[in-house]
Amino acid sequence: MSGTSAPAPPAAARAAEPPATPGGPQQATPLTPTLRGGLRRARTWIAIGAVAILGAVALLVLQGGIRGGGPPLGADNPAPAGAKAVVEVLRGQGVEVDEVAAFDDARSAARGGATVVVADVEGFLDPERLAELADTAERLVVVAPDFASLDALAEGVRLAGTASGALDGAACELPAAERAGTLSDGQGLLRIDDDARAAGWQGCFPDGEFGFALAEGPSGGGRITVVAASTAFANETIDEAGNAALALGLLGETDTLAWYVPGIEDVDAATAPTLGELTPGWVTPVILLLIALVVVAAVWRGRRFGPLVAEDLVVDVPVAETREGRARLYERSSVRTHALDQLRIGALGRLLGVLKLPRSADVREIAHAAALATGRDPYATERLLVDEEPADDRRLVELAAAIHELEAEVRRTLRPDADPTQTTERPGRPS
Predict the structure, then answer these.
(1) Residue 236: closest CA among 404, 79, 114, 27
(2) What's the pTM value of the predicted model, to 2 decimals?
(3) Pick from 121, 105, 85, 10: which is nearest to 238 by CA?
């Protein structure tokens, strides 16, 4: 009859209708952690690391500025370990100071009658070349030599450690030492034996019976002065006690001074020690012993298991075992969002079939259809199936239970005659 109202559409038809959303169907938002999300969560540690790196770089720059400027005792090095101060004073007194960086240039300057100062603090110059330079120069000053260099210069003069404190009194006939009078703390010591004394070597600034801060003696071409430490020439200590007077007196005897700081290019590759010479004697036996132990351990472990046996592998893995293993992996890795995504994917797939929606329906369409079928709030249902992230394990369990309850309610609404025990599998403890 015309007066009767049309029957209401069944619940399944209502659920199949697309939800009325203002912007139309929307794509599902993945909840699996992304690179951007990981960086956002770790931004605090990234900031701390960046600050630490910047601090380290700034510290290196500051230390480089304090220590930098050139090699130790470099003529143009204004750093505390450099010697620019004494060089500038010598130039102010009319001494022509030439900075040489090669052995041939230093030898040429020595043949021209210039005073040659050798500041080989790093030990680059070969002792034989230093002896050759001593035979050529009329006036040679060697600062802080090592054992090999000192042995090549003067037989019978040896290093004897460090002075106990400041040194008073030259106690020698060297004019520069007599004018200095005293030396500051931090001087090295040289010991002169009887044979060296007989050859004409004398020591200045004694430290009791331990040795002298300076030794002077003859060479093939003239005179050699050996200063055990660089304290009297360095910028940071030249103004202490009589250090400046000693340095100026030793280096300003002639009108020309060749300041020679050997570098890596002065190292003679033919005389450089080999790897075997630099290796301590105990290294080779230890390496051989380790090799023997590795071989013995390999044989022992290999014989323990016996020969290989071929057998069929198990290919039938129960579904419950696979599910439980995956859950334990999620629990161990604390990936709650990923675990919840797996539960949501399963529930959405089952809801898609119950609601009779096309396979092209997206996640939000399924959520709105489930809300229409059960009378729930569409936005709360969409948040349950799509948006909400679990903050802890307790919230993960609550969301899993809520998803199960939603699926069961949809089944009860659309299939009231269905067996409630066959609705869906009750999820266990999500991990």
Answers:
(1) 79
(2) 0.52
(3) 85
